[in-house]
Design brief:
By secondary structure, the chain is of the alpha+beta class. Helix content is 19%, strand content 26%.
Length: 109
């Protein structure tokens, strides 16, 4: 997974639409975002930055700002309720049916 940040000289909305369509047509692109104010295009996926630039240069001027590994999202793992410590005093000294009553325990019938 790579994260590629490109600077595009986008002057018209029509060029932006064509650039987005071109990026969507590339294989390996998992996600992308366009920042109009900073004129940046961010791509994430298994892509070759040189091929992306070659495709986009047909539409507008392109500069590579950075190419690097994409940060993996941290996966949230909820805690299992079965792994909690049982500190409730009602669980201490409980007998199972198979074991039968123990002679040194109090049994109320």
């Amino acid at each position: 997974m790579k994260k590629v940040v490109l600077k595009l000289e986008i002057n018209k909305n029509k060029i932006k639409k064509k650039a987005m369509k071109t990026v969507l047509g590339l294989s390996g692109v998992e996600s992308f975002s366009v920042d109009i104010k900073e004129k940046r295009l961010t791509l994430i996926g298994n892509i070759d930055a040189v091929k992306v630039v070659a495709k986009l240069r047909k539409l507008c001027d392109v500069e590579i700002i950075s190419v690097g590994p994409a940060k993996e999202e941290e996966k949230y793992e909820p805690k299992d309720s079965t792994k909690q410590n049982r500190t409730n005093p009602m669980f201490y000294g409980a007998d199972s049916i198979e074991e039968g009553p123990r002679p040194n325990r109090c049994v109320i019938m």
